[in-house]
Amino acid sequence: MDALIAPLLNGSAQGALLLLAALGLSLTFGQMGVINMAHGEFLMIGAFAAYLVQQVVTASNLSIPVALPVAFVVAGLFGLLLEVTIIRWMYRRPLDTLLVTVGVGLILQQAALQIFPSQGVPVEKPGWLDGQLTVLGYNWPLRQLFTILLATACVAALSAWLKYTSFGRRIRATVHNRDLAETTGISTRSIDRLTFFVGSGLAGVAGVTASLIGGTNSQMGAQYIIPAFLVVAAGGIGQLRGTVIAAWAVGVALSFFAYWTTGSLAQVLAFILVIVFLQLRPQGLFTVRTRSLA
Amino acid sequence: MTKLKPWISLSGIGVFAVLLLAVAPLVLTDHWLNNLGKYCCWAIAAVGIGLAWGRGGMLVMGQGVFFALGAYAMAMHLTLETAGDRVPGFMVLYDPLAPLPVFWEPFRSAGFTLLAIVLLPVIVAGVLGYALFKRRVKGAYFAILTQALAVALATLISSTIRETGGDTGLSDFKYFFGFVLNDPANKLLVYLIAAALLIVCLLAVWQFYRSRFGELLVATRDAEERVRFLGYDPANVKLVAFVVSALMASIGGAMFVPIVGIITPAEIGAAASILMIAGVALGGRASLFGPALGAMAVGWGQSSLGSTWPDGWTYILGLLFIVVILFLPNGLSSLPARFAALRRRSPAEQPAPALAGAELEEVRS
């Protein structure tokens, strides 16, 4: 049993982190058809924000709770800046946004490399994350439980926001039919900006979590962007529940593959898994029914 | 986009051939000739990307995979040639009695190696392309999936130190199919082969573009549904372009090894694959010469600026992406047409972003 439980919990935590990274990507991709390759760098910005907060808020018990909203806002502002300066000119050229944001990502990475030490910076883990919780005879590392809880909270908040607020309703309307939404008086421009802010902000939150688990350096964004995108693709565009299930599945699969083989082979296997899955369901787990041809 | 008359393009290739094959060896120092050979290898891969992306609308962000197939096949053969009957040095570093891994064995044969350089990318691209295109996976999905493959392959190679040399890669080749690699005359020969292969690839693509297939490929890019309604299977059209582009990347990779003398995972991963895209975008993705010239320009920037001022080079590369894609979606090759349009004082013919409508549909669907 142990051989099953440990990778399962590990994988769930890994999936939760992936989910946090994919959540914002799924939002901006689903809503605007913009593939933001700098999303990983926004995650990195969140992690560095956590480090900077830690320099000011020295009580390590408090630094992470403070860092989460700060990282959300800082990464969100970077996203907003990107949207206002570049993305908005390119809404009709999705593949080109992908390339432009690759360029933005390169610049952000290089900037981080020059501002912060190249070997990365330490983000201190608060004491209350160090312990373990023993339930049913198993030790559950608190750090992993925290990641899972945080991801759950973010999904709950995001789905409530989308479902019950007027902003959320307008966003969903824009996703379903942009032209019609525009006709009914929704300013899709400001909806786009808001979506980009929230989507990028979520990457910042993911970055804080990532900084607690792995290193905080200029390369960290690059390692999340592709798994996050695979999660979005497997889950179906703009489908929150699809993203959740896909993230968990990819996380658990990665963890099991890594348990049986090696970490790098696990990546290859997970990649093959997603390809095979897209054979079965090219549109992802869940799709919006449309009458479009393609 | 300017439609050059076929004979103008052909004579352009001719001039290019004379410059590369006759003038360059006379004018350039050995060092720069070797560099030029390296750029030629990237240009070969870029010509393929131009075919798949510029003409076919398939953004391949993981061309490093196919570059790697050719490069590692060649490198394995050269390593074995250098090692002779013994097991290559890096393998016995950890375990002096280590046997040669099974998959290395066939690469002793020169014929098998050459065949592998051609067949491996065709098989891999064929299977991957068939799986993706038949299920109508396209646009951004296709782009990211190919990049994921490049990342996965680079990670895999990095982690298998004993079988592939890991991060250090394969290097120290002494022979090239029997020729001593250090001999300047043989170095010139290797350069000439690379340059000639680039010319052959340009000719192949030139012929492709004129053919019925070329028309079909562009039609598929711009209006895939209509092509389907006309009775063609767009998946097959894309598959051919993707496979040819993979083959060119593999050839570029194979020539890269004897010229540069080393192949590492860093040359094939996400960053390297994106560098190839940068050149194509700069030169003009849909034009004949754009991809090759762009790749050479980026290669030159990489080796001159990148070595003296690596930080600045990364910023320049990032800005290049942003500025070119934002303002010049068809690359530098579209500049003459734009200037001509300005001079005629006619309302500037916006070289419309070739892929606009169709792409949006892809992402939304």
From TrEMBL, chain A:
CC terms in the record's Gene Ontology section: plasma membrane
Alphabetically ordered keywords of this record: Amino-acid transport, Cell membrane, Membrane, Transmembrane, Transmembrane helix, Transport
TM region positions: 12-30, 42-64, 70-91, 98-116, 145-162, 194-214, 220-237
Keyword Membrane: yes
Subcellular compartments: Cell membrane
Membrane topology annotation: Multi-pass membrane protein
Assigned protein family: Belongs to the binding-protein-dependent transport system permease family. LivHM subfamily.
Any GO MF annotation of the entry: transmembrane transporter activity
Domain of life: Bacteria
Broad class of where this protein is predominantly found: membrane
Full protein name: Urea transport system permease protein
Keyword set includes Transmembrane: yes
A Gene Ontology BP annotation from the UniProt entry: amino acid transport
NCBIfam families cross-referenced by the UniProt entry: urea_trans_UrtB (TIGR03409)
Automatic annotation (TrEMBL), chain B:
Pfam families with a match to the protein in the record: BPD_transp_2 (PF02653)
CDD domains, per the entry: TM_PBP1_LivM_like
TM stretches of this protein: 6-29, 36-54, 60-80, 112-133, 188-209, 239-263, 275-300, 312-335
Signal sequence bounds: none
Alphabetical keyword list: Cell membrane, Membrane, Transmembrane, Transmembrane helix
Cellular component, GO annotation: plasma membrane
Main location group: membrane
Localisation: Cell membrane
GO MF, one example: branched-chain amino acid transmembrane transporter activity
InterPro entries: ABC_transp_permease, ABC_transptr_urea_perm_UrtC, LivM-like
Protein topology in the membrane: Multi-pass membrane protein
NCBIfam families per the UniProt record, alphabetical: urea_trans_UrtC
Name of the protein described by the UniProt record: Urea transport system permease protein
Organism in which the protein naturally occurs: Paractinoplanes abujensis
